[in-house]
Design goal:
The structure holds 2 protein chains of 2 kinds.
Chain A lengths: L19 E6 L5 E6 L3 H26 L5 H8 L4 H8 L3 H7 L2 H5 L3 H11 L3 H5 L9
Antiparallel strand pairs in A: 1-2
Helix pairs in contact in A: 1-2, 3-4
Chain B lengths: L3 E3 L5 E3 L6 H12 L6 H7 L3 E11 L2 E7 L4 H9 L2 E6 L4 H13 L4 E6 L15 E11 L2 E5 L8 E3 L1 H8 L11 E7 L5 H17 L7 H19 L1 H17 L8 H15 L2 H29 L9 H28 L3
Antiparallel strand pairs in B: 1-2, 3-4, 5-10, 6-7, 6-10, 7-8, 8-9
Helix pairs in contact in B: 1-2, 2-3, 2-9, 6-11, 7-8, 7-11, 8-10, 9-10, 10-11
Classes of the chains: A mainly alpha, B alpha+beta.
């Protein structure tokens, strides 16, 4: 790749001012470091992965509003966690976390357990009780 | 937008942008101790280039195809081969991990930490995935928390809050960093760089050619290339595109300097060619660049396949697989030649 071949695509809403380093050949055939504004290929594959998380998050949000899942499930998805990761972070066994994803069981939880979850998810215990009414914008 | 910082002991740190986090961080740590060495040199000496297909480790449910060696290994190998004594520690206790970091940066010693990207709010929103393998340098404490230098991401130094730092360093889940922090204790200011280069090259050739498991090195590339052809039939078109996109993410998106570290390795071969005055190494660098260009073409072809995943595609999985096969063939030849050339070099 030559210096003038390093992609400098305008990809709004993706790189947000950061530049990725690329190694490319200058006119004398010497390798130099060239910061790249962005590349449409990078943006596309990033969007695929990002949208996948967002779709799961949105699906869970709707399920919570429909009363099929507890709000804990939504915040777990929001933080890109699994019951295993959330369990380790909060110090609660994964099988218990899975049970707590059910609304009826979640409603009966002690405040100490709720606090452990809120801390692990970096939200307040009040937040943990409900999910947003509207989908997250970005 | 500062690129120069004054550390706790009054010395100056200069921030330089790099292509990859671990090599950029290593190069900056060594430079701070008085050994001016480039990022490609660290990458080559630490035998960073690799290929491996890991179907048993899943990231978002997808198998990993990596283009580099295990995280942490480049730093360890480069340090050993350049005669650098290092401090490298993980912590069971979060408080102890934070106290130790504060103590060390308080003395003016810069420290590299391994973190989970999701919890770093100075990252752009769309880069924040639950991935525990990002490295950056902590410079000193300030009123916002910590002043840090992230050579692979930013062109200037920035702040990281204390909460972000704690969460990111002690995130749980796959590849837990467990507060990993590392820095050189002492450096030989005039190491035998030629010898280190030769060891690095020979080790690289072993990694690429000699592992008797069909998932690693050149064999791994052929294995994946063969699998790509079968994906559309076996997994369905949409899922096949998902898997292909995941290869591209690790090849291009996650800070590799382009073409899955192939260009940065070509830069290393070029620099080594100058060091040894060897035209053979320089020729190999040119060949590596040409191979990198094919990897790049593979990325473009794959991205066209993915883009048209809902309609009929002009580009085919066969073509993408074919390009990867060509890369495998030419890289095999290259590393065999490199093995011969490295064997003849005199340190």
């Amino acid at each position: 790749m030559k210096v003038n071949e390093v992609p400098q695509d305008d990809v709004p809403d993706y790189s947000e001012g950061i530049k990725k380093g690329n190694y490319a050949l200058d006119d004398n055939g010497k390798y130099v470091m060239v910061p790249s504004k962005g590349w449409v290929v990078d943006e596309m594959i990033n969007r695929m992965a990002y949208d996948e998380y967002k779709a799961k998050e949105e699906e869970t949000r709707k399920a919570v509003l429909a009363g099929q899942k507890s709000p804990l499930a939504y915040y777990m998805e929001l933080r890109q966690m699994t019951p295993e990761i959330l369990g380790k972070t909060a110090g609660i066994a994964a099988f218990r976390v899975k049970r707590h994803l059910r609304p009826a069981i979640f409603a009966r939880l002690k405040s100490s357990v709720l606090e452990a979850y809120a801390k692990a998810l970096a939200i307040t215990t009040e937040d943990l009780m409900t999910v947003p009414k509207n989908p997250r914008e970005r | 937008m500062t690129t120069e910082e004054t550390l706790a002991n009054g010395s100056t740190y200069i921030h330089r942008t790099s292509a990859h986090c671990e090599t950029g961080v290593t190069s900056a740590l060594f430079r701070d101790k008085g050994l001016d060495i480039s990022e490609p040199m660290i990458f080559g000496i630490g035998s960073g280039i690799f290929f491996g297909h890991l179907p048993f480790i899943k990231q978002t449910g997808l198998p990993i195809s990596t283009f580099r060696s295990i995280p942490g290994l480049v730093f360890k190998k480069a340090a050993k081969r350049l005669g650098v004594k290092v401090f490298r520690k993980r912590f069971r206790n979060q408080q102890k991990g934070m106290d130790e970091l504060r103590r060390v940066i308080g003395t003016g010693q810069i420290v590299a930490v391994t973190t989970n990207v999701y919890w770093l709010s100075f990252f752009p929103r769309r880069y924040r995935f639950n991935f525990s393998g990002h490295n950056f340098i902590v410079l000193y404490e300030n009123e916002n928390g910590f002043r840090i230098s992230d050579p692979a991401l930013l062109e200037y130094t920035t702040d990281c809050s204390t909460e972000d730092m704690e969460r990111a360093r002690f995130a749980r889940g796959p590849m837990e960093p467990r507060g990993l922090m590392y820095y050189p204790i002492s450096i030989n200011p005039h190491p035998d760089i030629r010898k280190a280069c030769i060891i690095g090259m020979q080790d690289t050739c072993k990694q690429m050619l000699g592992i008797p498991i069909p998932l690693f090195g050149i064999k791994g590339m052929r294995y994946v290339a063969k699998k790509i052809v079968k994906w559309p039939e076996k997994l369905g078109y949409v899922e096949a595109c998902r898997q292909l996109a995941h290869i591209l993410r690790l090849q291009e998106e996650m800070g590799t300097g382009g073409a899955g570290f192939r260009y940065i390795f070509a830069a290393f071969l070029q620099e080594a060619g100058e060091l040894f005055g060897s035209t053979e190494l320089n020729d190999l660098s040119n060949e590596m660049t040409a191979i990198g260009d094919i990897w790049r073409e593979f990325a473009v072809v794959s991205s066209r396949i993915i883009k048209q995943r809902k309609t009929k595609s002009e580009e085919t999985f066969e073509k993408a697989s074919g390009l990867m096969m060509i890369c495998a063939g030419r890289e095999e030849e290259l590393f065999k030649n490199l093995r011969d050339v490295a064997g003849k070099l005199k340190s």
